[in-house]
Design brief:
The protein is α+β, with helices and mostly antiparallel strands. The longest helix has 77 residues. The chain is elongated.
Length: 881
């Protein structure tokens, strides 16, 4: 049975034959065995089985019962038919019935024989015919039952017991009850009668079978008559209920369809209106019937401008043939999707669009129009074109780059150690530099046999990069191709790496040549008294002699390999590099002045001459320069220039002084001389009143000359007789000056204010106090009728240094005379007291201290402000200003 089930589940016809053949053989053997069994003999097969089993049995096997042989025949036939019966519908109803009837026969026969054993009187017992074994009777009953079940519910007799009909229900109830009743009745008979005879057993079995058949016939007849009418009524009622339910469902569906159609119409209208794609409806003739907002946005036409017009208004003339080719397809119900073409906007410009064109159908399925959904893909196409160009550019760059490029995959051992890598892609430069031909798809150990042992560092570096993802760079003398390579490697993804390499063989040769030249020059350079330096075309220092160490304060080991820029002051670095670039271009320095920065911060001025070191091809590989420190000479020249400048200035001052002195001293001398002659005349006249007056005039002129000479002497001493400079707070100097003039200030009712916390200056205290006293005194003198005279002494900080000032609110100074007032004996108002040398003395004192002085005033009673600078003592960490 298991084989039959397997065969029926197997789609192979061979499987069914494999199972069916033994079944057929069994049926034929049983048919041949049956006559011999009736005569008490065995068939050949049974003799063979007995001979094989005899050694293992205590006694010989008895012959098979003819009844058992008889049961084998229909059982084998039924199983054979069942084997070839389809597992699923459609089935042949006759085949089902035959299999089921055979099964019913086997089951009934087996049941009859088994019952006879239960009653202790098996058939043919104590006869010449061998009785059937109890197990064989059970086997026949079970095989028959299996055939009935396997035949299905559509075959006899299960067809009467299955389903929901009244007949089936009654049979399923009465048939088991009938069997149970008879069995119980006979069971009681067995209990009451201890010994039954063969006849009683036969009667019992036959009666039981007949009773069951009779009961089935009765029930079948009754139910056929009564159940038929009940079934018909039930069927009609069920059909009526189904019709009613279907009608209600149809009504509900119709109502829901109406509601849904309206909702879908509203939803569809909203989708069309607010879609980002242009959605256009048109007739089969191409007349536009609908035009959404996106269509207006894409094409520039409003709905009013397009509805009712032909679709060709947006189709370029060279695309009308496409339109003619598409419409017949739509008319036949076909769809066109993702059709890319050009369309015209209202302004005449062309755009690229992707079209989806579909037929519009009516409720009865007729095609009544065309729906076109258009998406503007102009920017997308431009982006694709740009991307394509970019990809082409990158491809060209990849193929034409000077650096070799190799994309590889690394392979590892079970312990995670890199063992080999495969070339996945390389560029033209790779093949040009390496010269190995086609390597894509090949492992490196095949391209370069023995490379793993010769260059283990390659595998170590590449493996480390693929594991960590950190890029690395290195140089290697790759002997298989006899070239030096500079390799940069990074990992774009796990187990993969990219190696970009440059052929640096020429550079390595140049470096070797440079080393040779350096060795040749080393003795010359080391023992030279002049500073000598050598650098390469990348401006890296390669030689640096002892004299240069003394010049810069740096040792050779500290600067080798560094850029030349560390040797130059920031202010002149660009100009220095300009000279160096000219030397690199082949120009030789004869005499070039380049400042050099010492580590102490001191700047040394050096005169340089240079020479180029070239390789055999004439290429410059190094530049050597020799210098001469002329810093001291430049300082001497600067001092000489300053002395000359000072002499020129003093000569000019002396010239002005001589002119002014001769002019201003002549005036009192003329007065004295004139009044001396008048005095002589008045003495002759004995006019004592006039004599006294003449003497007063002469005395006044002499006093004026004395003042002039005193101021001249004071001016000449400034810068010649100098007190040692000292650090004095400027506020202290200001207070001392004001204190000296306290009487004059009180007499003229002048208010003086002094700023607090003014900086400390490094000056000749006496001279600066004198200058400040002159400025305050000058301010007092020119207050005139000011009702509230004020003087303010303070300081103002600009970006470079503090600037001191003395401000008053007096009569002011006309801008035309603001330079003249600092000249010697210059008096704008001859009526005022003094010689006019005061501001000249102030100017001289300020300039001797390295400062400068100027005045600001609008004149005409607006007051004046005298500004001046002095050397200020710096705060901690600052330079002197």
């Amino acid at each position: 049975m298991v084989l039959i089930i397997h065969a029926r589940h197997s789609p192979s016809r061979a499987g069914q034959i494999f199972v069916g053949a033994p079944l057929a053989l069994i049926a034929v053997s049983a048919a041949l065995e049956l006559p011999l069994n009736l005569l008490g003999h065995h068939f050949l097969i049974e003799n063979f089985i007995n001979s094989v089993a005899a050694p293992f049995m205590a006694a010989s096997l008895s012959p098979i019962s003819p009844v058992a042989t008889f049961l084998v025949i229909p059982s084998a036939i039924g199983l054979f038919l069942l084997n070839f019966m389809p597992e699923k519908h459609p089935r042949d109803q006759h085949e089902q019935n035959i299999v089921s009837i055979i099964g019913f026969f086997c089951a009934a026969t087996g049941f009859l024989l088994a019952v006879s054993y239960l009653y202790g009187s098996p058939f043919f017992y104590n006869t010449q015919i061998t009785p059937i074994a109890f197990t064989s009777a059970l086997a026949g009953m079970f095989v028959g039952t299996g055939l009935i079940v396997a035949a299905g519910l559509d075959a006899f007799p299960l067809v009467y017991f299955s389903g929901s009909s009244t007949r089936a229900r009654l049979l399923r109830v009465f048939f088991p009850l009938t069997i149970a009743f008879v069995l119980l009745q006979n069971l009681f008979s067995v209990v009451l009668v201890s010994i039954l005879h063969v006849r009683q057993a036969i009667e019992f079995a036959v009666c039981l079978l007949l009773f069951c058949l009779l009961t089935s016939l009765v029930i079948n007849k009754v139910t056929k008559e009564i159940g038929l009418s009940i079934d018909q009524e039930a069927k009609k009622r069920k059909e009526a209920e189904e019709i009613l339910v279907k009608s209600q469902a149809d009504l509900t569906a119709a109502y829901e369809e109406i509601i849904t159609s309206e909702e879908e119409r509203i939803l569809l209208a909203a989708i069309v209106e607010y879609s980002d794609d242009a959605i256009i409806g048109k007739t089969l003739d191409g007349i536009i019937t609908s035009w959404n907002a996106a269509s207006e946005k894409i094409y520039g036409y409003t709905s009013a401008e397009t509805v009712g017009k032909h679709i060709s208004i947006i189709v370029p003339p060279d695309r009308l043939d496409e339109l003619a080719g598409i419409m017949p397809k739509i008319s036949h119900g076909d769809h066109v999707t993702h059709f890319e073409t050009d369309r015209l906007k209202k302004n005449g410009s062309r755009i690229r669009v992707s079209l989806t064109i579909s037929p519009i159908r009516s409720h009865d399925g007729r095609i009544t129009g065309v729906s076109t959904i258009a998406r503007d893909i102009t920017e997308l196409k431009e982006t694709e074109l740009s991307l394509k160009k970019s990809e082409e550019q990158y491809r060209l760059l990849f193929e034409n780059m000077n650096e070799g490029f190799a994309y590889c995959r690394m392979f590892y051992t079970d312990r995670g150690e890199p063992i080999d890598f495969v070339f996945l892609n390389v560029n033209n430069a790779f093949e040009r530099i390496i010269g190995t031909g086609i390597v894509i798809g090949k492992p490196v150990t095949e391209v370069f046999p023995g490379i793993r042992n010769a260059f283990p560092q390659l595998f170590e570096i590449y493996g480390r990069v693929t594991r960590t993802g950190k890029p690395e760079s290195f140089e290697i003398n790759f002997m298989p191709v006899k070239k030096w390579l500079f390799i940069s490697v990074y990992s774009p993804s796990p187990e993969h790496f990219v190696a970009i390499f440059t052929d640096i063989t020429d550079r390595k040769h140049a470096e070797k040549n440079l080393r040779d030249a350096n060795e040749y020059l080393q003795n010359l350079i080391n023992y030279a008294n002049a500073p000598i330096i050598v650098w390469d075309p990348e401006f890296r220092i390669t030689r640096f002699n002892h004299a240069f160490e003394l010049l810069t304060g740096r040792t050779e080991k500290d600067v080798i390999g560094l850029n030349l820029g560390i040797l130059f002051p920031e202010t002149s670095r660009d100009a220095s590099f300009e000279f160096i670039r000219k030397a690199l271009s082949g120009e030789r320095w004869e005499i070039v002045e380049i400042p050099i920065l010492n580590v102490s911060g001191e700047i040394r001025i050096v005169l340089w001459n240079s020479a180029n070191i070239v390789d055999p091809s004439g290429k410059i590989i190094s530049i050597i320069a020799q210098g001469q420190d002329i810093t001291d000479r430049k300082l001497t020249e600067a001092e000489r220039e300053q002395i000359i400048k000072d002499l020129e200035q003093k000569n000019a001052e002396l010239e002005r002084f001589t002119y002014t002195a001769s002019h201003d001293l002549k005036s009192p001398l003329i007065t004295i001389r004139g009044f001396s002659d008048i005095l002589a005349e008045d003495i002759k006249k004995n006019d004592m009143v006039m004599v006294v007056r003449d003497l007063d005039r002469i005395n006044a002129a002499a006093q004026k000359m004395e003042i002039l000479l005193k101021d001249l002497l004071n001016l000449s001493r400034i810068g010649r007789i100098v007190n040692p400079p000292e650090n004095v707070p400027f506020g202290e100097i200001a207070n001392e000056a004001v204190e000296l003039l306290n009487a004059s200030l009180q007499q003229h009712n002048v208010t003086v204010t002094i700023d607090p916390d003014m900086p400390t200056v490094c000056v000749d205290n006496v001279r600066v106090r004198e200058a400040l006293t002159n400025l305050v005194e000058n301010a007092i003198k020119f207050m005139d009728d000011q009702s509230h005279p004020e003087i303010h002494i303070g300081v103002k900080y600009d970006e470079k240094q503090p600037v001191f000032f003395v401000r008053d609110n007096g009569i002011g100074i006309d801008p035309r005379y603001q330079i003249r007032i600092f000249n010697l004996f210059e008096k704008l108002d001859p009526r005022k007291e003094g010689s006019g040398a005061g501001l000249a003395i102030v100017k001289r004192i300020i300039e001797v201290h390295g400062g400068k002085i100027w005045v600001e005033s609008a004149g005409d009673g607006s007051g004046s402000t005298f500004w001046f600078t002095l050397p200020v003592v710096p705060a901690t960490g600052e330079d002197t200003v």
